What does this fold into?
Amino acid sequence: MSQGKLFVISAPSGTGKTTVLKRVMAELPGLSFSVSHTTRLPRPGEIDGKDYHFVSESEFQTMIDQGLFVEHAVVHGNFYGTSWRAIDQQCASGIDVILDIDVQGASILRRSPQVTASHIFISPPSIAELEKRLRGRGTEKEETIAVRLSNARIELQAINEYEYLVINDRLEETITVLSSIIVAERARAHRFPSGQPIGEIVTV
It folds into this structure.
């Protein structure tokens, strides 16, 4: 069975990454979302085990001590981490895995000799547009928006570390570009756009 590929995707909070990923995964077969662990509280509508594995700080620390994480970092005051088990099982079954992590986690993975991945950064058109989107949520306090904008400026400095840069200005265009990247990477690995291996090509 063909080995699945890992796609590491980062974006500042409020860029629209979650919406883009849901659409891409609905349109392209053979994609799975890696469910990370976090110590933050669930947001309205989020489901434990589907959106994140929500755990306590003591549980998270135990997992760190046991070496169960590929990467882990503190983001906005909460712990986030990706387990080896989640990635290995999915990739081994031939499924391409979408890993949604911040620039800290992506940097750790990039330096790991055990991990091979394509790194994609989704950026807002501008900081002004990002602020507009954050305020449009209607769920963020003023101080939270200020922190997220400050962090976004720092995260945007890491753009050149990524192989691909996608500007989320127009949603449909962004979905097309991200889908095209995934399809191109599958072709590089001699796989169909669906993710299935092409196999042997007989020429006359």
In short: Strands lie at 6-10, 31-33, 37-38, 53-54, 69-75, 78-83, 96-100, 117-123, 164-167.
